[in-house]
Amino acid sequence: MKIHHALGPLAVILLANTASAQEEAAGNPLARAWGERMEKWAGLTLDDKLLLSRRDSTPGEAGTAVAQARAQNEDYTSRPYLADRGDGIHTSIFGTYVRKQELLVYLFYEYARNRDAEYKPKDLGFGLDQDFKAKHEEHEFLIFAAYGITDSLAVEFESALYTNATQSKSRSDPTGMPQTFRETGVGDTEGQIRYRWFEETEVRPELITFFEAVFPLQKSKKMIGNRDWELSLGVNVTKGFSWGTLMLKAAGAYSEADKKVDWGDWGIEYVKRLSDRWRLVLALDGTQDEVEAVVELQWKLRPNITLKLNSGFGVTPKAPEFAPEFGVLFSF
């Protein structure tokens, strides 16, 4: 799959001026403000704020609170293209956005399996420089954090605090590699700076650039973590429509080990808010010759707690054929 074949038509769609034809949210006039923030109750949705107003105020005061909330929501009514995602900065996590002075913490587990993963015994310390195929599995427990410094600038940190990776040996592999080669420890650890050059309007998509650094924390490991610096520079272009929100991503990565830049990192993401508590994310994510499709559901359990459930499915042979993930996202 060529990146220009996938991104070309969608880029035209993103730049089209169709946002003005969007309809108002049915059944709940406040449902457009997913995660919208008010100064008094930071991190609550509008519906949660109104419930607190009614519970803690007299009838007259509750009516005033409702009117104030509706007035503050007018900005989203006039900007329906933000209905699915709000006005936060897109993070590197699927369908997740961080606002000014907001801290996001995501604790999650990932599993990945590829029954025909390619490996070289030489890369694992067993001499032979030849490709073989056999089962590869990974279990990871990770933490992700993002903080919105301003309306335009955000920083991120992500680390696989514990990784358990196993590579099975091919029947045709003549080396002394054990039947199951296993490594455990800290996995990939990285940081990002993300900057929004301009926000979305009716006719213009939002533009974000990001810089990522993957830290070389595992000098002695063969399968987990990084032994050399990896640096990436990329761009996100996002546009909202009545039928959902599209984001396109393209990036280039420099590897200190290979001494070259690879422009094979790309992605397409679709986000649709289904209700005040549920959101759907569909994505196609590619890195060089590894392409996977991702389906995710987000369920807002409490005003500041969201459950995220997703799974990736390999589109190309080198991608993990099955990669489920589940975790809990906290907002502070």
Describe, in plain words, how this protein is organized in 3D.
The chain is mainly beta and 332 residues long. The protein folds into two domains: 23-82, no CATH class; 89-331, Beta Barrel (Porin). The chain is 13% helix and 48% strand. It has three helices and 15 strands. A twelve-stranded antiparallel beta barrel has the order 3-4-5-7-8-9-10-11-12-13-14-15. Strand 7 and strand 8 form a beta hairpin. Helix 2 (46-56) runs antiparallel to helix 3. The longest helix is centred in the N-terminal third of the chain and has 19 residues, at 59-77. The chain is elongated, with a radius of gyration of 22 Å. Mean pLDDT is 83; it is low at 1-33 and 35-74.
**What share of the residues lie within helices?**
10-25%
What kind of sheet is the major sheet? 12 strands, antiparallel, barrel
Strand-residue proportion: over 45%
The ordered string of helix (H) and strand (E) elements is HHHEEEEEEEEEEEEEEE
What is the CATH topology assignment of the largest domain? Porin
Question: Which class best fits the helix and strand makeup?
Answer: mainly beta
Tally the beta strands: 15
Write the CATH homologous superfamily of the largest domain: monomeric porin ompg
Q: Please give the count of helices.
A: 3
Question: Uncertain spans, ≥5 residues at pLDDT below 50?
Answer: 1-33, 35-74
**Name of the CATH class of the largest domain:** Mainly Beta
Question: Distance N terminus to C terminus?
Answer: 40 Å
CATH architecture of the largest domain: Beta Barrel
Q: How many domain units?
A: 2
Reading side by side through the largest sheet, how are the strands ordered?
Answer: 3-4-5-7-8-9-10-11-12-13-14-15
Whole-number mean pLDDT: 83
Q: C-alpha Rg, in Å? A: 22 Å
Shape: elongated
